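Homework help thread (please don't just give me the answer)

Our assignment gives two proteins as sequence + structure token strings and asks us to describe the second one. The first is just a warm-up. Here they are:
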Amino acid sequence: MTEYPVRHFLSDDAVAHVGEGLLARTLPREEWTHEAHLAATTYLVLKHAEIDLDVELPGIISRYNESVGGKNTDTEGYHDTITRAYLRGIRLFLEEVDTSRPIHELVNELLMSPMGRRDWPLRFWSKDRLMSVDARRGWVEPDLAAMP
């Protein structure tokens, strides 16, 4: 897998910008990076307990994608298994750290952890299974290893 430099967040406001921009569908499309996905989800877990992310996150991301001209199809846009895998990883990460720290520090630490890597789901799923239409459209159980 190609290595990309990790883009860190410099402030809590930068994380809030991504999280609130996702919710309001105002985040510019070019800012919706891998790091932004993880920052926004971490922000939502910590700052929006009223949102049932297990139920609502798929719609939040799908509507955002459409609002910036994207599509949610069998080959692009929202990917359910990857989203749910990272949501689980973020929750596991947050169970192990002091969440009273500034949120941008938590996000940056997450991004440098195994759970923050772009290829983290490939520890549990073969690429073919993870990139399948079934995995994009709904949760597909891992075929290489059980998730923590």
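The one we have to describe:
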Amino acid sequence: MSTEYPVRAAAKARTLTELETRLVRCRACPRLVAWREETALAKRPAFADWEYWGRPVPGFGPADAAMMITGLAPAAHGANRTGRMFTGDRAGDLLYATLYDLGLASQATATGLDDGLELYGVRVTAPVHCAPPANRPTTGERDTCRVWLVREAQLMQPTLRSVVVLGTFGWQAALSALEEAGWSVPPPRPAFGHGVRTTLTPAGPTGAEVTVFGCYHVSQRNVFTGRLTPAMLRQVLAEAAYTAGLPVERPGPG
């Protein structure tokens, strides 16, 4: 499968369901395909009885979401195992517990596709949909995969009002994707930082503004070192949800 597949397949998708169906068939990046499938076969001893997903991981959440959360890429033994973004690892434990606390998720835990979790007004996705070695996609892999995020944003355009980007890599990828999807990024291009926000205007006569929020990634390292605390994460998510018009209390000063 060539790198042309994502471009053709994403463009043909008319709904997010169609996009997800096409995405999980993607084999455009040989290094990522080999790694995700090797990991799915080798497994981690703690998950020896699991049948790993081992494919590209689609976005998760309602098609009419007003708020998007985008990170880096699936974790090798998290989403690559469970088949859902931020599900089955400690980063996801914090993210979904915080969304639940804000009233944006049906439960605080995320363990697998059959756990009953629902999101309210929020969709979780990533700029790279396959688990990468050492959790580091190459710039070429990022660019090849970006068309999926571009199309996802385009299909969400009628309702999307805010985007929370976790980490520097995600920030750069998300701004490029949103620009390709039809929003104008203000010059000079805003730099990533925790708590940074920037408003993108629709490039055409239709559509609405989208406010993009920067947030440190919910990685174990960031949480263990105190770079990101649960309170810091909650503040950003609450601000983004409130900006998107979701039913959360107006957040106080961070």
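TA reply:
I won't write it for you, but here's a hint about the kind of observation we're looking for: The chain has one domain: 4-243.
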